[in-house]
Amino acid sequence: MTDGFDMSMPAAAESVGRARRVARAWCRYCRVPDDLVDAVLLVMSEMCANAILHGGSDSIGVRAWLPSFGVLRIEVADYTPSRLPAVQHPSAESEHGRGLFLVDAVAADAGGSWGFSADGTSAWCTLPLPRNASCWRFGVPESDHSSSAEVSQASA
What we know:
Distance between the termini: 36 Å
Strand content: 25-35%
Order of helices and strands: EHHEEHEEE
Strand order of the largest sheet: 1-2-3-5-4-6
Number of strands: 6
Structural class: alpha+beta
Radius of gyration: 15 Å
Number of helices: 3
């Protein structure tokens, strides 16, 4: 599949690595520049880890696709309705709590956006795709990939 991938995986730590490997292969196929691949992999890792740690389901849904020209979208679902999490600002000594802070920083740096579905069951991030990536032309709008209501996080 050239325009994206969509998979379900167990809500287990090893699924983070699987999601990264699939995302990396897809990005390489699409000739996404290395600095943007790094951003995609970081966002994918953090969103998967949050879904596994904070979701209440036995599985997570992971997908990435090109919903419009020049836009790459990542979505991770834990299928568990919840209140929307907020970006934390942990101290240097904290071992946890940096995931959404990193997603926010990466999205802001790339000129993208991120947020959650209104019911909290999925997190999403969009990143602009440079024209030198070969897959930008494959943007295929599909109605099932669009959430009816989403909440965007504003980058400060």
